[in-house]
Amino acid sequence: MDTQLHSEVERHPDPEVSRRMVLRGVIGSGAAAALIAAGWVVEHAQAQEATPAASPMPAAEPNAIVVLFGQPTDAAAFEEYYFGTHRPLALQIPGLIEILGGPILGALEGGASEHHRIAILRFPSQAELEAALTSPEGQEAFADVPNFATGGATAHLARLESAPTTASMATPAA
After folding, report:
1. Strands 21-23 and 9-11: what pairing?
2. 18 Cβ contact list (under 8 Å, min separation 6)
3. Given strand 115-122, what is the order of strands in its sheet?
4. 41: closest CA among 10, 86, 15, 3?
5. DSSP states of 110-139 as a string?
6. Does residue 118 surpass a pLDDT of 70?
C-alpha cells in the first residue's frame, strides 16, 4: 500500500532557525526527502496507509502548492528579490503549468493581513508535483525562500478545481 504523509508547512518556532520551514502535509516520501535536501525541517505529523475505499469521498490528490508569505521586514526588498531572483527560479521547475499570485491587499473584514503575498504553483497531477519537488530546480526554488521571506512562509498542498460562473457560460447576443 502507498503511504502518504499528512502535513503543512510553517515557519519554525525556534528563533535560531526562524528562516527555515517545517513541513507537515500530504506528500510522498521522495518529495519530503527533496525538501530536507533543500534545507527545510521536515516533521511528519502522522503516516497512514492510503485507503480510498474506506472514506466516503475519494482522497483528493494535490496538484498545487499554495504559498502565503508573511509580512517582510522590508517590503520593497522582498518584491525586488521575489521578481528578480525567486520567481525566475520557480518558473524553471519542471512540470509547472503556471504561477498565479499577487499581493495580499488586506483582510476581508478590514484591516491589515498577516500575509504579504500569495503564490499558487499549479501542476498537472500529484505525480508531477512530487517530481517537481525532487528536481534540482524545485529544490533550488524551495531552498531560496529563506533568502527573502523574512516574515516567514507557509506552504500548503491543495487540489485546485474550477467551475464556470453563470456569466462565463452566457453566449454573446448576435
Report:
1. antiparallel
2. 11, 12, 152
3. 98-103, 115-122, 64-70, 153-158
4. 10
5. SS--SEEEEEEEE-SSHHHHHHHHHSHHHH
6. yes
Mean pLDDT computed over every residue of the chain: 76
The domain locations on the chain are: 3-49+60-160
Taking the C-alpha atoms of residue 159 and residue 98, their distance in angstroms, rounded to an integer, is: 14
- State in Å, rounded, how far the first CA of the chain is from the last one: 56
Beta-carbon count within 10 A of 66 CB = 19
Residues 9 and 119: beta-carbon distance below 8 Å: no
Is the per-residue pLDDT at 58 higher than 90? Answer: no
Give the Cβ contact number of residue 152 at 10 Å: 22
Instruction: Give the model confidence (pLDDT) of 15-45 as tens digits.
Output: 444 444 444 444 555 666 666 666 665 554 3
Q: Cβ-count burial of 81 within 10 angstroms (0-12 exposed, 13-18 middle, 19+ buried)?
A: middle
* pLDDT at residue 61 greater than cutoff 90: no
* E strands, 43-166, in order: 46-49, 64-70, 98-103, 115-122, 153-158
Class in CATH terms, 3-49+60-160: alpha beta
